[in-house]
Amino acid sequence: xxxxxxxxxxxxxxxxxxxxxxxxxxxxxxxxxxxxxxxxxxxxxxxxxxxxxxxxxxxxxxxxxxxxxxxxxxxxxxxxxxxxxxxxxxxxxxxxxxxxxxxxxxxxxxxxxxxxxxxxxxxxxxxxxxxxxxxxxxxxxxxxxxxxxxxxxxxxxxxxxxxxxxxxxxxxxxxxxxxxxxxxxxxxxxxxxxxxxxxxxxxxxxxxxxxxxxxxxxxxxxxxxxxxxxx
Length: 231
What we know:
This protein has seven helices and nine strands; from the N terminus they run H-H-H-E-E-H-E-H-E-H-E-E-H-E-E-E. By secondary structure, it is an alpha/beta fold. The chain is globular and about 50 Å long.
């Protein structure tokens, strides 16, 4: 069912409960994302199916369905819903997602959405406390195709490579070379990168052959920096 239709149902007069209020706000969030130009119905449906409020601090729960990034501690944020949808639309490019690597699990929200879109999601987080937070947040959702790892995401995870798709939730100076090497031929990487003159933008890198990659630039974005090591 299209997000706009779900929104229409959510706005029908009814007895308000916390669950219904959450459903209504989530439908409104997805409708706003669609109005901003995200048209991939699989992505919109996945966003509609995953509640965002369990992934934010209780004190910020009332803001969970705003189209804004929110702090999750340790200098990190849960990404703006529109940006999550936009990156996943670029990642999918109209195709079915098989084996996906996510760099930067954070609180686990994007991993949960990816779990609705991909056959297998491998997600790496470098901050131990956030890795544990994501594990706790995702446990009640019982997603057997989402696997969390603690480690340096810039290095990827060779034990699960190659990947059909890779998505980064932090911005480096360029797409890390180990990740490009772990991308399957025909695969796609989506990442925010820093521009030489300042600011950041999304890039899409397609692996064309064993030794050829094609990169294109898309939206201006603002992400936390991509860092080395673990903490």
